[in-house]
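Thread: Modeling a multi-component assembly for a lab meeting

Hi all, long-time lurker, first post. My supervisor asked me to bring a structural picture of a complex we are working on to next week's group meeting, and I have zero experience with this. I have the sequence lines for every component (225 residues in total). Could someone generate the structure of the whole assembly? Inputs are pasted exactly as I received them:
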Amino acid sequence: DAKTTQPNSMESNEEEPVHLPCNHSTISGTDYIHWYRQLPSQGPEYVIHGLTSNVNNRMASLAIAEDRKSSTLILHRATLRDAAVYYCILRLGGNEKLTFGTGTRLTIIP
Amino acid sequence: EAGVAQSPRYKIIEKRQSVAFWCNPISGHATLYWYQQILGQGPKLLIQFQNNGVVDDSQLPKDRFSAERLKGVDSTLKIQPAKLEDSAVYLCASSFGGGATDTQYFGPGTRLTVL
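Re: Modeling a multi-component assembly
Sure thing. I ran the full set together rather than chain by chain. Output:
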């Protein structure tokens, strides 16, 4: 599986935007970029996914670089409830398997 | 819509004892997964079922771990005998089974402590 690289931790102020980076320089043309997050004492939950174009949903936006070697998850206005570990995962086309790394632990400062 | 149910939520056992975890997936989901999450790490896939058949069990320690999904609905994961290094959260997830864009829905997990 192609690997991703994320910062171990990030901090952000409440009510400000958060940009969570992910590098995936060995991505292949059929790899989808998925983001999941894990709130404290809960199982992971789906956030967003994309292939080539930028994507928006009610939770977040995903900005994908033109060469697809990096992407950024954008939380437009962080709340305390967004404090979690965020995982960037490459998912091979046609494969349902999720391979988690260690993710980015996001701390929100009130 | 009901989510993925798991029980028990917590379990404490001594090494060499046996333990079993139960998972009931979201209704209609064909694919079921068991993950192991050791403290400070991301979840690691142990086994994936498609209906009641095994798709991937390459990372399941088969000398002590076993899993079944009878009738293609709920599933049990068993550890026999447990070791200290099995202390972890065991997560169950399910999905429709639609490939690389399919969303996995996770249960709350079972926290296992082996003494």
